[in-house]
């Protein structure tokens, strides 16, 4: 009886949050600017879709693709109509770049499910990954872990945090093909933001001593998280925060519902419940509480990653400045109950941050590759000053037979690839380290090319903090006689090249 009453109270809190949102709608209708805009559109006989949809540009290739997808849910998502704005207070003051476009908070794509007022909304943000995509594996586990009753009371929202509409549509189509029944019955929907939702990431302030690459990544991750939360808060009583590279325990939803009900009785003031203790995975919120956290993230979205913001928010709620760290930790535990075991397991090796390797293995999915072979342009010769280890030679690595492994590079050491004939390089990727030897990467090392007919190498890239060097070259910049890596300072570690990929303008190459 206590659990039933607690569940009813939580649902009433959710309905109250919806009521407050409707009041906001009434206030919005009184806005003079909007009234004037609506009058002008009516006066000029413009279609109402201008105020209800986002105008998106469709490439000829995408238009052809959409014609072939006529009648599918995927195609219907390209011009989402009558979709409410993502709703948070003070959003324009805290994210002023949104004022540059009246449609910045409207999605550019929405494959709708039509479901409202479900028990649990599961948020799954996804982006283009450097290597493997785990999204379909994740969705398979989420779908298979639901009972028939759970299916009818759950909504899975896949948020595609990309502005390439063709990629978004292809992702939606993959989902519809793989899960046709679940898309049709409304269990799964796909959402993607407008291009203008994101700020100019090159103007962000560097914080925490992080590189600009990491600052851009975590800032975008925060913005994606609050967009998804803001959309989900009106769809269901609870919101489950996940990532796109996890597997779920069988009947996970049943365990979540039972534990949440009992916890709400024993700890009614909980803020989120942890069903996995890794990062931002498996955190369950009351939807009525999301608006407070979303506003908090808006304040500090450029300062720290989302999992740190969760910890900071908890501390601000229950810790005072005179408390010790131990006392603060104890206080936080009172509003973040933890389930006895993890219902979700992280499986992703390659992070959504390009180049970053997350050393997580799962026996269920077999061994993790230690190198990635490619077919590269033919060479006249190759050479290196770095002492090779065993069979892990530069020649075998270039030919895709293994990875290159060398002993402690020194300042001035080179790895050189001389082409059989002058070659127009389209792009290059040199990935150092692998899952077994995460520290064996190039530090303080540049990539250089030698234009044909010259004697001077030019720097075109460098290895980042994750041991990745990649880049693109314009066709009129070449052709080139050689490409090389040049070490600029002594290293304390051995070095691995787990991927060597050189693509040319005059042809494509395939991964083996």
From TrEMBL:
InterPro entries given in the database record: Glyco_transf_54, MGAT4, MGAT4_A/B/C_C
Pfam families found in the cross-reference section: MGAT4_cons, MGAT4A_C
Pathway: Protein modification; protein glycosylation
Keyword hit for tRNA-binding: no
Domain MGAT4 conserved region residues, every copy: 92-365
Keywords (A to Z) from UniProt: Glycosyltransferase, Transferase
Domain MGAT4 A/B/C C-terminal: 381-499
Example GO biological process: protein N-linked glycosylation
GO molecular function annotations of the record: acetylglucosaminyltransferase activity
GO cellular component: endoplasmic reticulum; endoplasmic reticulum-Golgi intermediate compartment; Golgi stack
Name of the protein in question: Alpha-1,3-mannosyl-glycoprotein 4-beta-N-acetylglucosaminyltransferase A
Organism: Papilio xuthus
Taxon lineage: Eukaryota, Metazoa, Ecdysozoa, Arthropoda, Hexapoda
